[in-house]
Amino acid sequence: MLTSRALRHLQLPDWLLRQLRPMSIPADWTRICAVGLGIGVPQLIGLLTGRIEEAVLASIGALCASFSDLTGSYRYRLRRVGVAAVLGALGFAAGAAAPGPWWAAAVVLAVAVPSVLSSRMGDLWSSGGAHMLTFCIVATGEQSASLPAGEQIAWFAAGELLLFALVMATWPFRGTAPARSAVAGIFDATLRMLDAETPVAARQELTKALNTAHDVLVGGGSMSRSRVRDRLYLVYTHATPIVEASVSLAHAGERPPPRAREALRTLARCMRTGEVPPPYYPGTAASPLAQALDQGIAELVSAFRIAKRAEVAREHERVRLTFGRSTWAQVLRMVLCLALAEGVGLLAGLDQPYWIALTAALVLKPNSGSVFARTVLRAIGTVAGVLIALLLLSLVPPGWWSLPFIVVLAAKLPVAIDRHYGLFSAVVTALVLLQMNQSAEFHAAARLIDTLVGCAIVLAVGFLLRPLHRGPELETRFADAVAAVAEYVSQSLAGVRHGRPALRRRTYRQLADLRGALQQQLMNPATAPQAERWWPTISVLERVVDAATEKAVRDNPHDLQQAQRLVSTMRTTTRQLRSTEVRPARLHDELERIYAGVAAPCAPGAPGGG
Questions:
Q1: Which of 4, 85, 308, 572 lies 20 to 30 A from 400 at CA?
Q2: pLDDT in tens, 528-549
Q3: DSSP per-residue letters across 441-497
Q4: DSSP H stretches of helix in 173-257
Q5: Are 416 and 381 in contact (CB under 8 A)?
Q6: Longest dimension (CA), the chain
Q7: Do 47 and 403 meet the contact criterion of CB atoms below 8 Å apart?
Q8: Which positions ≥6 away from 204 have C-beta within 8 Å?
């Protein structure tokens, strides 16, 4: 892929730069080693024993599990890989058991529905559901004439178990998530700037750290809701006053108070480890700039502690299994695209028709940003991957000579997943073509045509379904959401029980639809700037509902007068959103104050205060 410097020299428009620019996320060597061994070891054993077909199935199983192995806490990695392995095996089993091509197409369409619905069940299930559909399609196209379906499933599951065992073995080398490191890097860069003799270069490093944190939190990966990601984004938005005060201090040649410097070190450490920073209170700093830094640190720590402290009952997790109109629109789009893809592949008599459906499923994966951008990048990446595979297949015979290249491409896969979807498409295409060519001749050029047909189907269906995706302006959407949250907060803080569960379900469903709409607009060239300005606000709205749910579950209502003031403020905000132009930043700040009021404990002696 092109470097950022080369892209700038081409004078490309901003929206295209956003799509083509890889993110600068550090490589995770534990994942690189796990995927390289997980895919390479089965191939090695197959070459030694002569059971190439079984080895290819095992390496495909390892590939399935590797797609979900993201850098994070050890427990999170095991859960994510485990869920993906189980659901991927179920999908593969369903595809392998299909008795014929038309039955296989019907199985794919049936699996597509729960796969898309799982995107509303959290990041783990969303990832697993996508793998269930992806490898169901793979199984329908790679059915073996010599191996029974049961043995195919067993070898596939063996590859998944191998990758899972390798991830388990990373315990001594476990690291932190890229999002944690990126946010911690802001405070590290701020400290380096304050220590630098010539702060110009250090200020540039600070800008780079801010850009990296932005890319990791907003620009890539899944956008489904995560409490950790939301808290880190909260820190990122609250870091602006700290950065501004620090830059001002460096420019003026002033030194910040030692306690402020120690607080910045503590914040960096807590961002990496997930610990809660100790309370911080502004001191009597010597200058206005130092006071501004003190105040910024105090406000960030306070906001983080409130967000970290808010614990929501299990009832809340059940609530989030609700599906709104946007979810069913995604189901319809996926089913229509897969039906067309399967129909084209079967009626055209292609030798590997499943590749068209596989392209549609990968591009339409929920919670993955703009479909248009993924379609374009998928096409570009596949062209690059096919060219790489054609070059290698023309120069290197299958067997032992191909094994080093398979291992190298497998090791490159975790880096590509993190940094760029187009790069990922190129690497995985070349890798799969080399893997498949180990057991049977695989026509790389035909796969390029199949991919382009799949992309064309996605674009065509997406264009036809545009009326279903058109909705009100973001201001109207947020006005509706704030109104729903205000009604729910009113009942929760007043201790009302009758009808509250149904209202809570509707509120969470509305917020899920709003998050989905923002997510789809975030990387759309025409709507990305506006959507990004609104993005922080959805997290605050969700935390307001979380805090109100906690109060209701604990049966700990607020003082009625305070509750009425909070609800009145939200209803005033709703009217302003409907009648005037309200800036996203102003709405975000207002909702942060409301959240602090909802999450605050009741005053002693207040009704319901205990």
A1: 85
A2: 677 777 877 887 887 788 778 7
A3: ---HHHHHHHHHHHHHHHHHHHHHTHHHH----HHHHHHHHHHHHHHHHHHHHTT--
A4: 178-195, 199-214, 227-252
A5: no
A6: 81
A7: yes
A8: none
Whole-angstrom distance, CA of residue 114 vs CA of residue 245? 49
Whether the Cβ atoms of residue 38 and residue 162 lie closer than 8 Å to each other: yes
Place of tokens 């009326």: 467
Give the model confidence (pLDDT) of 380-412 as tens digits. Answer: 888 888 888 888 888 888 778 888 888 888 888
C-alpha closest to that of 99 among 151, 157, 148: 148
Phi, psi (rounded to 5 degrees) for 160:
-65, -45
- Residue of 140, 41, 58, 55 lying closest to 93 (CA atoms): 140
| Full-model pTM | 0.67
Q: What angle do CA 67, 525, 328 make, to 5 degrees?
A: 60
**Sign of the torsion formed by the C-alpha atoms of 506, 512, 518 and 521:** negative
Which run of H or of E encompasses 603? none
How big is the chain by its Cα radius of gyration, in Å?
26
**CB contact set of 89 (below 8 Å; sequence gap of 6+):** 61, 153, 156, 157, 160
Q: What are phi and psi of 441, to 5 degrees?
A: -65, 130
From 351, 349, 441, 396, select the one nearest 52 (Cα to Cα). Answer: 441
Q: What tokens appear for 269 in the block? A: 């450490």
- Tokens 């199983």 locate to 61
Q: At what angle do helices 123-141 and 149-168 cross, to 10 degrees?
A: 140
Tokens of 469: 């995706």
CA-to-CA distance for 29 and 529, rounded, in angstroms? Answer: 34
Buried b (16+ CB within 10 A) or exposed e, 223-258: bbbbbbbbbbbbbbbbbebbbebbbbbbeeeeebbe
What span, in angstroms and rounded, lies between the C-alpha atoms of 114 and 131?
A: 12
Task: Enter the tokens of residue 47.
Answer: 């070459």
Cα of 386 vs its chain's centroid, Å = 27
Residue appearing with tokens 């038309």: 102
Half-sphere CA count of 63, side-chain side, radius 13 A: 28
Query: CB within 8 A of 105, min separation 6: which ones?
Result: 140, 339, 342, 343, 346
Q: CA 573 to CA 478: how far, in whole Å?
A: 10
Please write the tens of the pLDDT for every residue from 569-582. 888 888 877 777 67
State yes or no: pLDDT of 493 exceeds 60. yes
- For residue 540, the one-letter residue type is V
Q: Answer for the pair 192, 246: CB distance below 8 angstroms, yes or no.
A: no
